[in-house]
# Entry
Amino acid sequence: MHNMKKIVTEEGKTISIQMNRNLYGKNEELAKKNWATFNRHHIHAVDILGSIGSGKTSTIQQLVFNLKERYRIAAIAGDLTTTIDADRIREKGANVLQVNTDGGCHLDANIIQNTLKVLDLDSLDLVFIENVGNLICPASFPLGAHQRLVVVSVTEGPYMIVKHPHIFQGASVLAINKIDLAKAMDVDPEQLKADARRIQPNIHVVSTNARTGEGIPELIDALKLK
Ligand code: MG
Ligand code: ZN
# Structure
């Protein structure tokens, strides 16, 4: 977590110091402004979180491909240094803004506010925000989106959800991706689902294979994008 700094003292005792309380408050404030901006322009915004390799980009590609006739879509792709994700999404027919965080490990509301300034918001209905690939700190930085979709792949093992409770508390939809590999990985998707529901009882859970498109209609339903 960004707010706790651990300091090991000379005597070998560890003390924790709370820091940047203000930074969270400020982010919260800007997130509310972003939310209002989206609403003013009748835009539905989805924040998409997941580890590197979980399939966030492939999932967005599928969503764009399936929804582009119905909605005018833009994607904001957060990445430390590359444009790989942005290029992949653009190729499916969305307007894509690449945000390089220059090593920063999460997007924050300030970044999104600045990004929204360069998008033509009146020409959009739907915005997908691909967060930076980690499941720790993005949980603490709401962006002002209406929904949080978490993409977890079965290749991340059976304990990935119980080990990251914070990210699931704020999530409305969970996609269990690479579902075709569940048997080979000896991971039980029903167990992952139960783990997520224990943390967030209202979460909608769908199984997907973003490579083939399996489960994408169900995901669109879960996101209420019909
Ligand atoms: Mg990606
Ligand atoms: Zn971070």
